[in-house]
Amino acid sequence: MNFTITPELFEQIQYYACFAIVMLGSLTIHEFAHARIALAFGDPTAYKLGRVSLNPIRHLDPMGTILFIFAQVGWGKPVPVNIYLMRPPSLGNICTSAGGPLSNLAVATVSLACMKLVTFIPAIANNPNEPFYKVLDTFLWLSFAVNIGLFVFNLIPLYPLDGHHILGEFLPDDMQEGYMRFQLSMGVYIMIALWVGPRILRQITGDPNIPNPVRWLIDSIRSFVYSLVM
Question: What is the mean pLDDT of residues 162-191?
Fold first, then answer.
């Protein structure tokens, strides 16, 4: 039996190869940023565990990697921090938590800028269907799209995402304990409900247009940012 790689199959292989590289690199940069900023504020916990590194292997999470392979979504191994070693603790926690998403925003910005710049290169603009240029365009688009997605998703203020740490630091002291108790007990379930609930409602009602609010938020912000530049 002969196995032939058709042009369509080859494009799919290129796409998933680009996606794998982008996702792995984006998660690595995200977790590295957390660890490096924590160290800058005086917390060496992640540094002692070898997490202040751009080596992707140090940041891989088993379950996140499995989901990445089979569902194209995933996450890195959480960076351990001790805010009581940070100076000042509150600012350190905010900056460390925000550092991961902001690093993804930076990568997305650079990727989008590169997408715009290459349109001014005659060799690319006049030959958009050349294999190398098509791969470059796919890679830059995925780098932008994935990193904007990680930026928005991780700022959602629900445990275990980075946003819940940031929001918590702006609450009054007398609300901190109750807030964290709520996040630890309910945050994951709310996130699951936001993600799975619309799918269940679509099955029950037969309405295929019920949106996933998380995906809608990410897609809306991604489209808005893209429209500002391209």
Answer: 94
3-state secondary structure of 21: helix
Catalytic residue among 31, 130, 169, 177: 31
89 within 8 A of 176, measured Cβ to Cβ = no
How many domains, in total, are found in the chain? 1
- What pLDDT does residue 36 have? 98
Task: Determine the pLDDT at residue 2.
Answer: 59
**Residue 116 placed within a domain:** yes
Long-range CB contacts for residues 62-65, cutoff 8 Å, separation at least 24: 64/27
pTM metric for this prediction: 0.91
Query: What pLDDT digit, counting tens, does each position of 113-155 carry?
Result: 999 999 888 888 777 778 788 899 999 999 999 999 999 999 9
Give the integer Cα–Cα distance in Å for 29 and 95.
Answer: 15
Is residue 184 in some structural domain? yes
Q: Domain residues for 19? A: 7-229
When pLDDT is cut at 50, 70 and 90, the band that residue 51 belongs to is very high
31 is catalytic: yes
Per the CB < 8 A criterion, the answer to whether 27 and 76 are in contact is yes
Is the residue at 221 inside a domain?
Answer: yes
> 154-161: long-range contacts (C-beta < 8 A, 24 or more apart)?
154/30, 154/100, 154/101, 154/104, 155/98, 155/101, 156/191, 156/214, 158/183, 158/187, 158/188, 158/190, 158/191, 159/183, 159/184, 159/187, 159/188, 160/78, 160/187, 160/188, 161/187, 161/191
Kindly tell me if the per-residue pLDDT of 178 is higher than 60. yes
Does 2 reside within a domain?
no
